[in-house]
Amino acid sequence: MPELPEVETVRLGLQRLLPGRVVTSAVSDTDKSFPNALSDIQVFLVGASVVTVARRAKVLLIELSSKYSLVVHLKMTGQLVFVGTEERFGAGHPNDSLVGHLPDRSTRVTLEFADGSHLYFNDQRKFGWMRLLPTAEVPMLDFFQKVGPEPLSSDFSWRDLQARLLRRKNTNIKAALLDQTVVAGIGNIYADESLWGAKIHPTTIVRDITESQFKALYEALTAVLRLSIAKGGSTDKNYVNAEGKRGSYLDFASVFRREGLPCPRCGTIIIKSRVAGRGTHTCPHCQPLSK
DNA sequence: CACTTGACCTGTCCGC
DNA sequence: TGCGGACAGGTCAAGT
Q: Of the candidates A111, A146, A181, which is a domain's last residue?
């Protein structure tokens, strides 16, 4: 569920909250969530300070003064929530908070900082992970070797999107968009939203997509990603930002989780189907089946 | 090699 | 009310 806009929203929050803080302890409840040896954690994490927080694709990179980085993938239900000292014994996060008092039963890793503040890695389904790695080795990870370009980078054009997607020319466009080696950061929400924006049916085979459709898809994709970042991402069930708060993009979504409701463009009822093994939302009028 | 499907997990919801 | 099963969907391994 955390896709590019959600992970970027978490990054923006952590970049505001973490740099300069010194880690004083790190506790993990499962090897699966944080598989590093305790000795490495003691040497390269405890005592180090946070330098900066970066992102590549859906992966967060918390760079440390020890020349190591915490590499974090939230997968489906992961959260990274910072709790400052002023909130420590209060009623938790106010307003649009989705988390109660932390740690809770989904907390997998707890980092404590020198001033008594905490960073909690919560993950209900345990798909996500956090790993401590020398910063110089991060780009060598298999995932980073294979992952595609950032869709919002200034040198990524509609021609680039077209060329990357055509690497999967015999599959359907939704599967191609979800393939992280084609373009980084797109998941189920923004695949559906951008295909609706470009008026392309998700089962359309990539080789059958026209130039003007590729161009429209590029415009729609970059627009929905930017809008979602501006709205703090999408909260469906679990996603929260670094302060434990929801994102509001789904209030602006056109098709995702809107089956049975009218298409914002033409009023036709939106339907849900299954494409590429994923729940898929389309407007039958705006996104006709090709061939 | 290209492509599709299943596994990994747990909480929630739906039908009986 | 309880219970089984379907579903959620990011990524990798296994299967076709």
A: A146
